[in-house]
Amino acid sequence: MDADPREIIDTGDRLLAEYPELFTEQYETNTRLMQQLAGVDSFRIQIRLTGYITRKKRTENSFDR
For this UniProt entry, which segments traverse the membrane (predicted)? Predict the structure, then answer.
């Protein structure tokens, strides 16, 4: 199964909106959270979502400084 980038972005943004305080700038932490929250069967989609969310959190926090 392959997801187009728009699906990754939409799903990532939805998860960030639902759980803004749960996700961090740490990829490993977000990976564990993604396994619990997303319910995605595909490992590739899971790592793409984790990467998107991690990059988004790092970008958010770099603007806050």
Answer: none
CA within 13 Å, CB half, 29: 9
Q: What number of H helices and E strands is found in the chain? A: 3, 0
- The pTM (predicted TM-score) of the whole model is 0.86
Domains in the chain, CATH or no CATH each: 5-64 (1.10.60.20)
Distance (Å, rounded) from C-alpha 37 to C-alpha 18? 10
pLDDT tens-digit map of 20-35: 899 999 999 999 998 8
Tokens 């989609």: give the residue. Answer: 45
CB distance 10 to 44 below 8 Å: no
